[in-house]
Task: structure prediction
Amino acid sequence: MPKSINKKVLRIHLLVWFLFIIWETVITNLLYDMSAPVINYVVHYSITIALFYLQSDIVLPWLGKRKGKWLWIPLFCVIFLLTYILAHWVGEIFLTHLLGKPVKPFYGMTWQSFLRNGYRGLFFIGFSTGYYYLYSFIAERRHAQELEKQQLLAIISQQQTQRELDLMQNAFLKAQINPHFLFNILNYIHFQSIKSAPQISEAVTRLASVMRFAFDIGDAEETVRLGDELDQIEDVKYLHSLRKNTGTLALNYELAVCDLRLIPLVLLTLAENCFKHGDLAQTNAQMELFLADNQLHIRTWNKIAKAKPAISTHTGLANLSKRLQTVYDRNYEFTYGPDGDGGFSVQLKIALELTLKPVSSTTTNTGTTVLP
Result:
């Protein structure tokens, strides 16, 4: 059933009906030498076209949805033929009075006209039925093609996803191989320099420890023990102490914080920020961790260096802020920026209850505001 007809389809329908009416009119005039006023053709063909679409667009779709539709078809054919004959008879009555023609008995209704209109009714029943099933076939075919297209797109999408998974798997395998190779090299350097250059050997050991911690957290839980990350900061402090004319990071913390858990690399990110952007030659940077008001407090401070670091993306604290937002929603406070006295301070406060166990990305909102 055509539920909606666009302009292109409408033009095709009008053209087909126009050609059919011209063809039938010409054939009738040539074979039977019959002609009639234009209004006569308009009335009778209007009735025929209306009944044609009444059947194809309304009656047949309605029959198609009913149970035992094949039992309804004979009754429908009889009703349609009687309707067709009656409609054209009413049209003839209308034309008789409109054109002032002599009134015939029963307005020209005879057995001959009855059978003639019955034959034409069967003729248009066939055309209308054929049109309905042809249109339905085309619509179902298009629907099937659309489903096939969607299935094909789904298969392509699935293949692309599988390809991406394969690439990620390969990258993961490479990530497993490369650190293994790197640690072997560091281990070799350590043993080769342990006697001749013990300081270098110690530096390599500390570097390997920090790197192994960073690599291993990818397989760890969502949070890490703060005590383990504090140990890595001690290694980072040692590595930075190898440089001449530089200070260090004064690390102060309560022992109670060591068993608390936090998302990984928070402390290392803050320490790196102090070492990279701080002027530690004049004043040591500071980091402190303590508990107060049922919250874990983490603070850092460093004097701002006048010279900018050679390599800096300026995204460390911004990325940390996004990570905190993703995991802790609004259950924390994170502020950082210049303090107005030539220093740069960072402060993180997080509810103590969230540091006692691993967290998920859907935590309860307590209404604490995240500061930029």
About this structure: Confidence is low (pLDDT under 50) at residues 360-372. The chain has two domains: 36-156, 194-355. The domain at 194-355 is CATH 3.30.565.10 (Heat Shock Protein 90).
